[in-house]
Structures are given as structure tokens and as C-alpha cells.
TrEMBL record:
Residues holding Ca(2+) 2: 253, 255, 257, 297
Protein name (database record): Annexin
Keywords recorded for this protein, A-Z: Annexin, Calcium, Calcium/phospholipid-binding, Metal-binding, Repeat
Organism, as annotated: Hibiscus trionum
GO cellular component: cytoplasm; plasma membrane
GO biological process: response to cold; response to heat; response to salt stress; response to water deprivation
Gene Ontology MF terms in the entry: calcium ion binding; calcium-dependent phospholipid binding; phosphatidylserine binding
Amino acid sequence: MATIDAPKQVSFQQDAEVLRKACKGWGTDEKAIISVLGHRNAAQRKQIRLAYEELYQEDLVKRLESELSGDFERAVYRWILDPADRDAVLANVAIKKLRPDLHVMVEISCTRSPEELLAVRRAYQARYKHSLEEDVAAHTKGDTRTLLVGLVTAFRYDGEEINTRLANSEAKILRDAVEDKKFNHEELIRILTTKSKMQLMATFNRYRDDHGTSITKHLQGDSGDEFLLVLRTAVRCLNDPKKYFEKVLRNSIRRMGTDEDALTRVIVTRAENDLKDIKELYHKRNSVALDQAVAKDTTGDYKALLLTLLGKED
């Protein structure tokens, strides 16, 4: 369930005019920007960008980038982009870091639908003039590269049907690989990169029923083991993405310093999807509302935008 409150009837020209006025003069009217963009869905935001360009022969995204700064600017930038283009940007930033944020790559690959992931790959190619899988391969190596390229290029069956017999046999394959600590076993990678999410959930459930604990509990090892970390993240994202996102939010807020990148990424990418469910799970697991935690840990216009996307005005 989404958290943003977007009206059904919108004047895109009027919204463009409000944003133009907010960016003119000596100071920027951040509240006006939030009042418009914070209450528009992806399709509406796209139409506002088109209306703005038609009216003023100017790119709204670039104008906002020049007017805003800091965490607020980054959050607005990520929010205003089309979802596939946004994921392409997130992926590029993550993979091009000195130490790539591989968990972001896993997150995008494993929590988006097959059609959404395909759209991300197309957007990446259009924006950067080379493929996402090419960049993933260039910035990773060994077993990590094999797994990540497989996840990025996957086009899974997206239906509800499952094969119980196959779930049973593949749960055993996973268990054998785990017991032998052959986490890079080609069969394990094959299962994770080709099976539908419903089929994988059946396999993971069978694994838990047979062995009394989840597979992620058995995927433990050296905290410096990059491949094992990527593998565990993939399993968590594929099996229960809402639980995964709740933990990302919890970790982003609980640290000595707030991880604004993670906090922004989850709120911005899930606000039109399942953020309401993630909020409920956060409250249940932490005994505090996510809105309260975010309000306590952030300030200013950045805080106001996040709270708006969470469905709560500052």
C-alpha cells in the first residue's frame, strides 16, 4: 500500500507555474515545492516536467538541482525521476563508488518485478550509453560477479503457480550446499537467479520446515566475505522484501549518524508501492512509529519531504 496522497484531478500547467514561482527570486520556496511534488504520483510528476519544459523551455529537474542543496536536493531529485530512471541512477551511483554498494544492486534486482527490472536496464542503457550488466561485471569479480550479473539480467516468471515437488528438491540442493559451505555452488546460484519469487518462497519455506530455521540463519560467516553478504541479501530481498526494507530503515536511523542515502532510497522508492506496510512492520518491530523516528532523526526541508512521502505532514 502506498503512503502518498495524490489527487486524481491535477492541473499540470498550474503545478508547473507554482514550481516556477518557487524557484524565482532571491530565495527558493521549498514548502511550495514539497506541497506540489510530495502529493503527485509518478505519472503526474512526469506530466509536470513536460508542462514545465513546454512553458519555460527549461528542464525542471536541472532547475531544481541548481536551486536546492544537500539531502533535500538529493531526495527531490530521486523523487521527481521516473521510477525506472531513478533506479538506473541509484544503480550507477552504487556500482561506481570506490567500494561499490552491492546491496543496492541486489535490492534493485530482487525487489522489482521482472517488467520493472527490464525497464531499469533500458533506462540505464539510455542514460549511460552502455548496459547495467556491463557495469556490474566491470566493477565486481569472481563469484560475486556471477551472482550479481545473474540477478540483474533475470527475467523471472511472475505468476502465482508453484511446483511443490521442485520446491522440495531444490530446498535439499540448498541445504546440501549450505552444509558443505559451498555457498558459490552453481546450482545454488542457478536457483536464485532463475526461479520465480513465488517458487523461491515455497523453496525457502520448505527449507525452514525441514531444518527448523530460515536459510538466512545458515548463511552466516566472515563479515568480510563479500559474496556471502551479497548472497544473504539476495535471499532476504527475494523472500520477504518488506522485512528487508524495514531493517534497512531501522539500521539507517539507529546508527551513530543517520544514513541519509539509505533512508531516502527506501522512502522514495517504496512510497508508491508498499511503504504503508513497511511502516506497520517498523512500528511492530520497534515500538515506535516510523514517522516519529524520521522526525527525530532529520531536520528542515529534508524532514518535511520525507514526512510528506510517509503520509504525515510535518
